[in-house]
Design brief:
two-stranded parallel sheet, two-stranded antiparallel ribbon, 17 helices
Length: about 450
């Protein structure tokens, strides 16, 4: 009896401790995210007063790359990836310089039209401030990791206005196939607090409940399954294009700031060939797709290219907002090809490509409810899970740790970084494929007779 009472007492104290700490982290991240978003909105409004603001892209990418290289190299890339790396390799230790450098570099990149997102900086700023908080109060490595994960959740929740999906994202994005249940409560609290702090300070959020209610039929469900396969392929295309951009950047034997000038000039050329539609966050295009408007069929391909160039040639920012653009526009294309409702599949595509590219099907499914309402949730969830499986063993976050095989017919090494994973056919799967091929040949022979 005493032993049971002691156990419950310890658990109660632990719960109270993490409710308090998560609340503090939520307040800190909510305030910092609000500051970042307000500065970002001001800079974008200022730049939009000039029709050819994108001509500053070479200068912006040069400056972004330079301040990161010389002041905080850990601020390079799209933010969330660096926080994942810090959690796995350094027990969540993030240098204090990362916070201001990431904020400034991202604002410079987005103001000039770089194709990046705003969630990565918020996750890195949230994680960085959480790490600083842990060091100030002498927390051990285990608690620091939990606090940094809370910072990721709080940053994601406050930037998109999705407290539940944000909380799940923070505990799902670290491992592919595993959720950190011991951080679930503080992540929820940090996300909810951060979201309410930001919204109370004037940050407005996107919420677009769908008016179209699809009637469930077997044929419609098959189309949803097909869409999941399609969005998984789009996710894989995004990841491979990012890798290709990185290889091209590494082949240039010049300093990173000079690479920024090269990337900026290439982006300017692409803008004159196509349009300014693929610069920046692309929120107007996302909104148009969700309202049922048609968009040029290859829009998602161009956004992938713009984003890969920006991130691999000196730009700083997140990856999730471009993923939203890519998902919504590819969803519109899928709906057009199959004669479906544009808005419905733009919404499904938005979350399904996130599920595939980031390996976060649960967070993406919950986000569908928070952004678009519960009516589309069953279809979005199916598409998210299929997209997650179809993307294979790859990710926009190379430091994610693989905890499951996505198919028993593949040989993959569990427990390593996804970047180093190479999937191979299982010997038994080869015999199964041979058996299926034999069955197909037999059927063809009977048809010919």
């Amino acid at each position: 009896m005493k032993r049971r009472f002691a156990e419950e007492t310890i658990l109660l104290i632990s719960i109270i401790k993490w409710i308090f700490l998560a609340t503090v982290i939520g307040i800190i991240v909510g305030l910092s995210t609000t500051l970042f978003l307000k500065l970002l909105n001001w800079s974008r409004l200022f730049a939009s007063n000039y029709s050819y603001y994108f001509l500053l892209l070479p200068v912006a990418l040069f400056l972004s790359a330079a301040i990161i290289k010389y002041l905080a190299p850990d601020a390079e890339g799209h933010g969330t990836e660096k926080v994942i790396e810090a959690v796995h390799k350094r027990s969540g230790k993030i240098k204090a310089a990362v916070v201001p450098v990431k904020l400034v570099a991202t604002i410079i990149t987005l103001a000039a039209g770089g194709s990046v997102g705003k969630e990565g900086p918020c996750a890195q700023i949230g994680g960085g401030l959480s790490s600083i908080f842990a060091d100030l109060f002498k927390f051990d490595d285990r608690d620091r990791k939990k606090l940094v994960i809370c910072g990721i959740s709080a940053g994601f929740a406050s930037v998109f206005g999705t407290p539940i999906a944000g909380a799940i994202f923070g505990v799902e994005v670290l491992f592919i196939g595993t959720i950190l249940y011991d951080v679930l409560l503080p992540s929820f609290i940090a996300g909810i607090i951060s979201y309410h702090i930001s919204s109370s300070l004037g940050i407005s959020y996107f919420y677009h409940p769908l008016n179209f209610v699809p009637v469930f039929t077997e044929w419609f469900f098959i189309k949803v399954v097909l869409s999941g396969i399609f969005f998984g392929i789009v996710s894989a295309l995004l990841i491979e294009t990012l890798k290709l951009g990185n290889k091209l950047s590494e082949k240039l034997q010049i300093s990173k700031p000079l690479k920024g000038i090269v990337g900026g000039l290439v982006l300017i050329g692409l803008v004159f060939i196509f349009s300014k539609q693929y610069l920046g966050l692309g929120l107007e295009s996302i909104q148009s797709c969700l309202e049922g408007a048609r968009i040029i069929w290859y829009a998602f391909i161009l956004k992938i290219i713009f984003t890969s160039i920006t991130l691999n040639f000196g730009g700083s920012g997140g990856i999730v907002t471009p993923i939203f653009f890519i998902g919504a526009t590819s969803g519109t294309l899928f709906a057009y090809l199959l004669g479906l409702d544009f808005a419905t599949f733009a919404a499904i595509g938005l979350v399904a490509v996130l599920a595939g590219a980031a390996n976060t099907p649960i967070a993406a499914s919950i986000m569908a409810v928070e952004l678009f309402g519960p009516k589309v949730a069953p279809y979005a969830t199916v598409a998210c899970v299929i997209s997650f499986l179809m993307t294979g063993h790859r990710s926009v976050y190379p430091s994610q740790i693989l905890s499951i095989k996505k198919s028993p017919s593949l040989l993959v090494e569990i427990g390593g970084e996804i970047e180093k994973v190479e999937a191979q056919f299982h010997p038994r799967s080869k015999s199964l494929i041979g058996l299926l091929a034999a069955i197909v040949r037999t059927i063809r022979g009977k048809i010919k007779k």
